[in-house]
Amino acid sequence: MEAIKVEHLSFGYTGDVPILEDVNLKIDEGDYVILTGENGSGKSTFLKLVLGQLSPNQGKIELLGRDMASGSFRGLKIGYVPQNSISGNQDFPATVEEVMRTGLYRPLGKRLSRKECNKRVLQALTELGMEDFLKRRIGELSGGQQQRVMLARVLADEPKLLILDEPTVGVDSSSIQALCEILEKKHKEGLTILMVTHGNTRIFAGANRHLRAEEGGITE
Ligand SMILES: Nc1ncnc2c1ncn2[C@@H]1O[C@H](COP(=O)(O)OP(=O)(O)OP(=O)(O)O)[C@@H](O)[C@H]1O
């Protein structure tokens, strides 16, 4: 099955200026895809459409077999790591552990046990080399460390599709290295990954597809 299927997708913020025009794209389950492109080429807009934060003017988007127009995304196992979500706010009033727990929120009746939550939190932090930071306030961490925590947070929820927006911006080289390694490992375990990046794409050697946004299209 396709993880993401886009057919004849067109979008513009204002009626007469199209940002994306008749985009057709299939991302298979298990793909590890890097999406690059110049500033303003529509990468973030594309992610927002895929995540249901924007609605297409025309066309169709299916995620893990579900039509996004149905408005029913509940239960879809999608992990999203936005760009620099915490940085700049040193007083953000939560510890790493508390931030991790918010990623495991479930409605009443479907909640994970405390033991299972603790296990997943520690396992995911350990995978990213961040287990010693469990009790630290997240705002005190470097940008790269925060980014690792935010990735651990979504991985703890065991997504089927992982979407990352510019995960290397403002991040130190050891965190970029840790990011590359974990993404390669997760890709080998079968996780589908879509990552927008400006950075040096050669460091993401594990990716099996490279896409480029330009002139309203997205090409291989
Ligand atoms: N909310 C908005 N309202 C109007 N125009 C917007 C809005 N958001 C983005 N745009 C415009 O849409 C175009 C694509 O922007 P987008 O942010 O998708 O590009 P990008 O490829 O992600 O750029 P960057 O690499 O700089 O993040 C740009 O011309 C931008 O000015």
From TrEMBL:
Keyword flag Transmembrane helix: no
PROSITE patterns referenced in this protein's UniProt entry, alphabetically: ABC_TRANSPORTER_1, ABC_TRANSPORTER_2
Keyword Transport: yes
PANTHER family per UniProt: METAL TRANSPORT SYSTEM ATP-BINDING PROTEIN TM_0124-RELATED (PTHR42734)
SMART domains: AAA (SM00382)
Annotated ranges, domain ABC transporter: 4-220
Keyword annotations of the record: ATP-binding, Nucleotide-binding, Transport
Protein name: ABC transporter
InterPro entries: AAA+_ATPase (IPR003593), ABC_transporter-like_ATP-bd (IPR003439), ABC_transporter-like_CS (IPR017871), Metal_Ion_Import_ABC (IPR050153), P-loop_NTPase (IPR027417)
GO molecular function: ATP binding; ATP hydrolysis activity
Coiled coil: none
